[in-house]
């Protein structure tokens, strides 16, 4: 799969609502945290989706964070899809609200999601998403004897 490796990422929602996802290779899932604490479902289980789709959107009726504001989910905009420990950047496209959005990579091809739970984050287009790359693999050395 195309994309850049990512160890974790934070969606910079306004105020104290920043959400962080950390890649867990053992479960092949993104562990969700909020305000630095694990984010659990009502059942008590840790929220850990296989995919996180970040669609950058505009908000109407006062803007993001204002009571009654609505994200504009028709049209198109930037998109980051986090799946299989990587991020694929592209565009979401939804000309008709009656149909699902298309998730397209930079070349216009559909982005394939990993089977399993998918979470969608809808930050305002002005918000930042910060990624942390995985640590570089340790250098290995070898010794050979001259022949």
**What is Rg?**
18 Å
The helix/strand order is EEEEEEEEEEEEE
Q: Helical region count?
A: 0
Spans where pLDDT lies below 50 across 5 or more residues: none
Proportion of residues in helical segments = under 10%
The multimeric state of the shown protein is single chain
Note the beta-strand portion: 35-45%
Number of strands: 13
Q: Please describe the biggest sheet, giving its number of strands, its sense, and whether it closes into a barrel.
A: 6 strands, mixed
Q: Which class of secondary structure composition applies to the elements?
A: mainly beta
How many angstroms separate the termini?
A: 42 Å
Please, what is the average pLDDT?
A: 90
Question: In words, what does this structure look like?
Answer:
The chain is mainly beta and about 150 residues long. The protein contains no helices and 13 strands. The protein has strands spanning about 5, 10, 20-25, 30-35, 35-40, 50-55, 60, 70, 75-85, 85-95, 100-105, 120, 130. Strands 1, 6, 9, 10, 11 and 12 form a six-stranded mixed beta sheet that branches. Strand 4 and strand 5 (about 35-40) form a beta hairpin. The protein starts with a strand and ends in a 15-residue tail after the last strand. The model has no long low-confidence stretch (mean pLDDT about 90).
Quick recap:
By secondary structure, the chain is an all-beta fold. Helix content is 0%, strand content 40%. Strands 1, 6, 9, 10, 11 and 12 form a six-stranded mixed β-sheet that branches. It has a five-stranded antiparallel β-sheet with strand order 5-4-3-2-13, with no helix packed on it. It has a two-stranded antiparallel ribbon with strand order 7-8.
């Amino acid at each position: 799969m195309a994309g850049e490796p990512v160890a974790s990422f934070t969606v910079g929602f306004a105020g104290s609502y920043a959400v962080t996802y950390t890649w867990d290779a053992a479960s092949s899932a993104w562990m969700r945290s909020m305000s630095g604490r694990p984010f659990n479902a009502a059942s008590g289980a840790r929220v850990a989706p296989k995919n996180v789709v970040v669609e950058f959107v505009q908000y109407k009726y006062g803007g993001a964070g204002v009571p009654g504001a609505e994200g504009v989910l028709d049209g198109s905009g930037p998109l980051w899809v986090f799946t299989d420990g990587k991020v694929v950047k592209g565009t979401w496209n939804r000309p008709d609200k009656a149909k699902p959005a298309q998730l397209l990579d930079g070349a216009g091809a559909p982005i394939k999601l990993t089977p399993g739970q998918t979470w969608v984050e809808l930050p305002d287009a002005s918000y930042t998403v910060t990624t942390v790359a995985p640590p570089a693999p340790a250098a290995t050395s070898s010794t050979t004897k001259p022949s």
